[in-house]
UniProtKB/TrEMBL annotation:
EC number from the UniProt entry: 1.1.1.27
Catalytic reaction(s) noted: (S)-lactate + NAD(+) = pyruvate + NADH + H(+)
UniProt xrefs under InterPro entries: L-lactate/malate_DH, L-lactate_DH, L-lactate_DH_AS, Lactate/malate_DH_C, Lactate/malate_DH_N, Lactate_DH/Glyco_Ohase_4_C, NAD(P)-bd_dom_sf
A Gene Ontology BP annotation from the UniProt entry: lactate metabolic process
Keywords for the protein's UniProt record, in alphabetical order: NAD, Oxidoreductase
Keyword set includes Oxidoreductase: yes
PANTHER family reported in the protein's UniProt record: L-2-HYDROXYCARBOXYLATE DEHYDROGENASE (NAD(P)(+)), L-LACTATE DEHYDROGENASE
Source organism: Gossypium tomentosum
Organismal lineage: Eukaryota, Viridiplantae, Streptophyta, Embryophyta, Tracheophyta
Highest rank taxon of the organism: Eukaryota
GO molecular function list: L-lactate dehydrogenase (NAD+) activity
Name under which the protein is recorded: L-lactate dehydrogenase
Residue ranges annotated for the Lactate/malate dehydrogenase N-terminal domain, each copy included: 38-177
Length: 350
């Protein structure tokens, strides 16, 4: 059963009431059909799904938001709680159901359902449990929204993005994992904090696996357009490679630390995914490090693998992968990250 918006509280006569409430204007032009109606579906209304849903609402990214979860009572509770904020938010139709028909005609389907890490547990540990769930989630999503973009967030995100690609039958440019967009934000925050500047002025990418083998691209760090490492070298200012490694280690440890402290991560992934939704649906053509079909880029040739690369995102999904200059060491680490993912993937039987 689909749970709809609050207009149902006017009873079956709700529509009649609306019709008699407004006196129609005379000779009005028909509504413009040029503005696109945008629909986003979020599967999984746990900590992550709800952080994403509320960021989507506050940032006015969709005309319609559909929520799906396997727990109907919690789902209805979350839907109502969001609907009750209608007076404070841009107008968005919110519906919810355990039945995937609620997602029909979505432009973007975001998957956050599944098990999350316990303190100390790695993302890869979630693999078997979450792969099994995807078989129930991806085929109905793909059936109801065959032209949508799939954005996978559940962990281990790179492997689950690959499995979702296989299960959906979608072209690879329309299957994306949130990947290291979050890790890169953590990286930018730590660099900004270190140098006492605004993280939005720090450009820096983490690529590869969203996990323990991620790769920090030191050569990409720039602040206000100034490439940091080459600036330091030109000015003959010494820096410790260990300092850089420590910052990367802090990025890798970030999720573990937050999970130890509060049990899960949510706010940063909420903003990260909303930013991706904006770039995709508003055709922003921005570059984000996200999990994409990586075979053929940067010498990755061991198999069909999804991992994060700086990708150009727009209404068509992944428009391309940026050809940035990597050092030999960075290319080697990226290939190793791909191999780690492939080793596990090859045992999945997909
Ligand atoms: N890629 C990333 O950067 C991040 C990924 N995550 C991942 O997101 C996932 C969700 O994390 P949380 O929201 O904290 O977990 P949670 O336990 O709070 O929520 C998971 C939700 O999935 C629902 N669910 C389970 N099976 C389902 C099914 N078959 N169909 C529909 N819904 C189903 C549950 O009812 C629950 O509401 C985890 O895998 C976590 O590791 C979390 C943070 C960041
Ligand atoms: C849980 C997770 O993947 C993260 O916060 O990075």
């Amino acid at each position: 059963m689909q749970m709809n918006g609050s207009s149902s509280s006017f009873g079956p006569g709700g529509l009649d009431l609306a019709q008699s409430f407004f006196k129609p204007i005379q000779n009005g032009a028909p509504p413009s059909t040029t503005k696109r109606h945008t629909k986003i579906s979020v599967v999984g209304v746990g900590n992550v799904g709800m952080a994403i849903a509320q960021t989507i609402l506050t940032q006015n990214l969709a005309d319609e938001l559909a929520l799906v979860d396997a727990k109907p009572d919690m789902l209805r509770g979350e839907m109502l709680d969001l609907q009750h904020a209608a007076a404070f938010l841009p107008r968005t139709k919110i519906s919810a159901s355990a039945d995937y028909s609620v997602t029909v005609g979505s432009d973007l389907c975001i998957v956050t359902a599944g098990a999350r890490q316990k303190p100390g547990e790695s993302r890869l540990n979630l693999l078997q449990r979450n792969v099994a769930l995807l078989s129930d989630i991806i085929p109905p999503l793909a059936k109801h929204s065959p032209d949508s973009i799939l954005l996978i967030v559940s962990n281990p995100v790179d492997l689950l993005t690959y499995v979702s690609w296989k299960l959906s039958g979608f072209p690879s440019n329309r299957v994306i994992g949130s990947g290291t967009n979050l890790d890169s934000s953590r990286f930018r925050f730590l660099i900004a904090d270190h140098l006492n500047v605004n993280a939005q002025d720090v450009q820096a990418y983490i690529v590869g696996e969203h996990g323990d083998t991620s790769v920090a691209l030191w050569s990409t760090i720039s602040i206000g357009g100034v490439p940091v490492l080459s600036f330091l070298e030109k000015q003959q200012i010494a820096y410790e490679k260990q300092t850089l490694e420590n910052i990367h280690k802090e990025v890798i440890d970030s999720a573990y630390e937050v999970i130890n402290l509060k049990g899960y991560t949510s706010w940063a992934i909420g903003y990260s995914v909303a930013k991706l939704a904006r770039s995709l649906l508003r055709d922003q053509r921005k570059i984000h490090p996200v999990s994409v079909f990586a075979k053929g880029f940067y010498g990755i040739d061991g198999g069909d693998v999804f991992l994060s690369l700086p990708a150009h995102l727009g209404r068509g999904g992944v428009l391309g992968v940026t050809n940035i200059h990597l050092t030999d060491e960075e290319v080697e680490k990226l290939r190793k990250s791909a191999e780690t993912i492939l080793e596990v993937q090859n045992q999945l039987g997909f």
